[in-house]
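Hi team,

Filling in the usual template for the complex we talked about on Friday. All components are listed, including any nucleic acid strands or ligand strings, so the model treats them as one assembly.

SUBMITTER: L.P.
PURPOSE: interface mapping
COMPONENTS: two
RESIDUES: 514
SEQUENCES:
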Amino acid sequence: MSQALPTFLEQIRCLPELLPRLVEAIEPRARQVLTTPDIYGIRQIVLTGSGDSYIAAESAASALRTWTGLPVQALKAMDAARYLTQGIKTHSERLRGTLVVCVSHSGEAARVVEAAQRTRAAGAQTLALTAHPDSRLGRAAANVLALAVPDAGAVPGTSSYCASLLGLYLLGIRLAEVRLCISMDTANALRSALTQLQAPMAHAIGICEEPLMARAQAWAHCRVADILGSGPSGGAAAYSAAKLIEATGIHAVSQDIEEFFHLNYFVADPTEVATLVFAGAGSAGSSRARELCRTLQDLGRPFLLLTDDATFGPPEHSLVLPVVPEWLSPLLAVIPATLLAALWADRIGADYFRGHSGRWRASQSGALVRGSTIEPLLKEE
Amino acid sequence: MNTYQLATDRNGLFDITPQVLAALQESGITEGLLLVSIPHTTAAVTVVSHWDPLGLEDIDDEIRRLVPTRVDFKHQADTPQDAAGHVKAAIVGHSRMFCVDKGELVLGSSQKIFFWEFDGPRHRTFHTQVIGK
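RESULT (copied from the run log):
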């Protein structure tokens, strides 16, 4: 066992206990971060971030869309910073009515800071979701929702991702409640559902460790992995791919289940491509996921279906997680995603983030994402 | 004291007279007073004529006209409907007392007792207490 594994596993095992504390800390802040007139001024919502923060945005977008009834889209920080504002000059108010939620745990990711600066200058209402309100992002955005995340050490982000997701969910619930899209009873039930995810998360740890250890062993020779999911599970797939890259260094790619049939299906040497599928039996994309399982079997891909119904997929390829509402599945998926990454990395003796050394030394202290040049919005002539 | 649960599916008036009459009958009291109490700050209790359902809508329409749901209430901890509901409930009141005579609740032929929801749909509670002999 590598020295880093116990630290990573400890962070994963702490998540169920941490979850209600995070909800308790973030919820009152989400309640106060925007005034009622501000909330009624919103016509569309853009969720943006990079890396895990973008994945959190991607994972939460559909829930926020459902609850608020507003157009909600997740944009990568580059899109939000450079393309959402393309051709717009300062003080034009072109983005008036757009709430741009900028997610960055450190608050120092340059492109996210830039997105806040530029969209704010173009008239958007900006809100930073960060654990560091005094960061560049905290200063750039008009409002800050502070995330209380304990320091996890030098392991792939887990609690910080959960905090970002919780912040987005709690913000969405709040917006929907104030806009009277959902009743206060419903809003409180959704908040309770977040807290009550503690038990399924703890249960998932117990049932996942052994089968994922076996998969890590069986897949140790694979240098490529496809991680598949749609809707909220698309976010889960993206997060799982991110953790595999960070922890193991293999080339892991997330893909939507429908897009798989158009693209990744044609990847050569299918027996060497480890494939993970996130699909709940009751999810909107479940029928396509069933078809996917048959296709993966025909291709001879080594695959594992993470689902919530033992009868949903081929038993020998299935790992059955506790049943939760589809919108909560990205949070629950953190458990198998991080466990697989931790156990696989340990199996092949990989250093997390390649040790930020050798060819990868430029990434030390996040320099590659923090040190990028920020381009301000052009001033009105 | 008797406690009743009520799941409101909207804002407006909900007839609770049957529950109140049952509470009186159960108490066995023939002379005295009966109190209906609402333990909420965004709901109230009132007495209204029950003959025309549109009259109930008129009453709810008028309280909405008097206290519109606005976004600029100072109380922003919950929702604009909640803030307006606090004002409406304070105006209408959270309890009503009724006379009990010869084992009967003293109500006029047009009168019914209504739970008035200002922040629905919600899961609600109301209480009755009968005092007398």
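MY TAKE: The beta strands of chain A are 44-49, 72-76, 98-103, 125-130, 143-146, 224-228, 251-255, 273-278, 303-307, 318-320. Chain A has a mean pLDDT of 94.

Thanks, L.
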